Known about the structure:
mainly alpha
Amino acid sequence: xxxxxxxxxxxxxxxxxxxxxxxxxxxxxxxxxxxxxxxxxxxxxxxxxxxxxxxxxxxxxxxxxxxxxxxxxxxxxxxxxxxxxxxxxxxxxxxxxxxxxxxxxxxxxxxxxxxxxxxx
Length: 120
């Protein structure tokens, strides 16, 4: 918690502090697991399933690459393996912007809840 957060907390009333405690910021792993729920959770499940298949296929091609004795099969399996592994990594990294958007939306809802509680 930085200095600004401490100043905000000191300026709050008791009920606002309780509201702040109940809506604390989620950690990295909690945010990641939250992607599997909600309206678009099925998209995350699909992305992860395809990512796992691509990763396993890339590892299988990598074993073929290391087992190849000639140059042409080694190049074929090596390029295929690296392409599959890069595709798997891109799919996994495609979820990070959604995690960031969810963090921002959660904070906006938190502020909205605090403003609504002030009106009452």
